[in-house]
Amino acid sequence: MKKSAGFTLLELLIAATILGIMVVFAATSYQNSMAETRLAAARGRLDVLAAAVQRFQFDYGINPPPGQLLDVEGLGRCKDNENLFNCGFLENGGWSDSYVRFYVCDNAETGKCFSREDVTVPATVTNPFACVQTIPTAKWPKRFQDYTYCTSATASGSN
Asked: Is the pLDDT of residue 70 over 50?
């Protein structure tokens, strides 16, 4: 009997199917690890933001204006407690991100961080200083599509 020197079509199809399944798992794992890395970096920047809010409160005795912390123009003198950049509490760089938004909270007044009613502060965080929220239009894995992480003087948490 003569020995075959190659692979059969069935063997090649099985190998290609196994490789395809492995690629799907690897791509999903890579996407999740990239999302977790982006969120870890955002939480680190959020800690810096929360510390700046706390310093602002100690210096002025009031909260900085609540709202989104993006698209701030230039550095200048602290005028009418405009924002954390102009008052010198934060460097004006590295806060613009196409994946997440940073928010300053109005914790003394309402205990909420957002003017939008559809986003809530996690129940584990009371009187938040700042929050970070994923941008739904960015390419996030499904479990991170509506992710909010807030920090206060006593706790941090996500929903």
From this structure: no
